[in-house]
Amino acid sequence: AQSVTQPDIHITVSEGASLELRCNYSYGATPYLFWYVQSPGQGLQLLLKYFSGDTLVQGIKGFEAEFKRSQSSFNLRKPSVHWSDAAEYFCAVAPDSWGKLQFGAGTQVVVTP
Amino acid sequence: KAGVTQTPRYLIKTRGQQVTLSCSPISGHRSVSWYQQTPGQGLQFLFEYFSETQRNKGNFPGRFSGRQFSNSRSEMNVSTLELGDSALYLCASSPANTDTQYFGPGTRLTVL
After folding, report:
1. Chain B residues in contact with chain A using a Cβ-Cβ cutoff of 8 Å
2. Burial letters A3-22, b for 16+ CB under 10 A, else e
3. Cβ contact B99–A105 (<8 Å)
4. Which of A19, A40, A83, B30 has the fewest C-beta atoms lying within 10 Å of its C-beta?
5. Cβ within 8 Å, pair A44-B90
6. Nearest-Cα residue of chain A relative to residue B29
7. For residue B2, what pLDDT is reported?
8. Average pLDDT per block of 10 residues along chain A, 113 residues long
9. In terms of pLDDT, which residue wins out, A54 or B77?
């Protein structure tokens, strides 16, 4: 079955430390891939996307993600987190139908001083 | 450009009632998708409209319906509300024939 997996439900990171959030997908072909962030009580904000080409994608707020076909992964990274990065992060894929995104369960990121 | 707007932002209904939620996409975007977000089920796709036609539908009962108008604004309707319909309903818009979706702030529906 097609699926998107975010193995980490919750991550705690110190301010200034690096962050890596994992995402694995299971699809027949390489789907379009996205990372979104959601702050409490808010909608989803697009951080970055991968359609094709360069496997290292730069996004907003200093985030980047690397697509690895061999591992069916699309991990999100940030070299140095800020307290404002505390939020829930969702990996999503657009498998084969227009207008439909399939989301992972999300990873809650807590930033400590 | 203004972002995706959703009205109302908060709504309280009782079981058995019906509700209509509204979504105005980003100017120029012709595709509107709807999602339900709950703590237990996460983010689930409801349906997608493009040029007033439903192109895609998720696995939700027929109580959930939607439509899109000629100006690309969209509404979704839930009839005979159940407690389990309590959720954040998110609308997203995208330009024609791309998969990059931009989300609104959502409507928080509480069913009592």
Report:
1. 4, 31-33, 35, 42-43, 45, 48-50, 55-56, 58, 90, 92, 94, 97, 99-106, 108
2. ebebeeeeeebeeeeebebb
3. no
4. A40
5. yes
6. A99
7. 84
8. 91 97 88 93 92 92 95 96 97 82 96 95
9. B77
Of B35, B58, B99, Cβ closest to residue A94: B99
Residues 6+ apart with CB under 8 A from B13: B19, B81, B109, B110, B111, B112
**C-beta of residue B103 within 8 angstroms of C-beta of residue B89:** no
H, E, C per residue of chain B = CCCCEEECCEEEECCCCCEEEEEECCCCCCEEEEEEEECCCEEEEEEEEECCEEEEECCCCCCEEEEECCCCCEEEEECCCCHHHCEEEEEEEECCCCCCCEECCCEEEEEC
- Closest approach of B73 to chain A, Cα-based (Å): 15
pLDDT of residue B97: 67
Q: What's the rounded Cα separation, in Å, for the pair B1 and A102? A: 27
Query: What is the pLDDT at residue A52?
Result: 84
A3 touches chain B (CB under 8 A): no
pLDDT digits (tens, 9 = 90+) for B15-70: 999 999 999 999 999 999 999 999 999 999 999 999 999 999 999 999 999 999 99
A59–chain B Cβ distance below 8 A for any pair:
no
